[in-house]
Write a structure and sequence with these properties.
mainly alpha; 4 helices
Length: 71
Amino acid sequence: QKTAYEIPKRDWSSDVCSSDLWRAAAQGAALLGVEVSAARLNDLARRGTSAEGEALLARLEAAVSRSASPS
């Protein structure tokens, strides 16, 4: 079994468990304070790179950086 980082983006929407992947990704994003639905993540992945997707990725990366910084 591969992690989301190991699965090529083009394979995400065709993965048998893609709904589980998107649900887990949305839950992880929520834990970082970034609200996004699993359906929205799936839609963004199917459309490929977009300004909205890039903005979401930047928000997630910033949230991860904040959570990894020592308090």
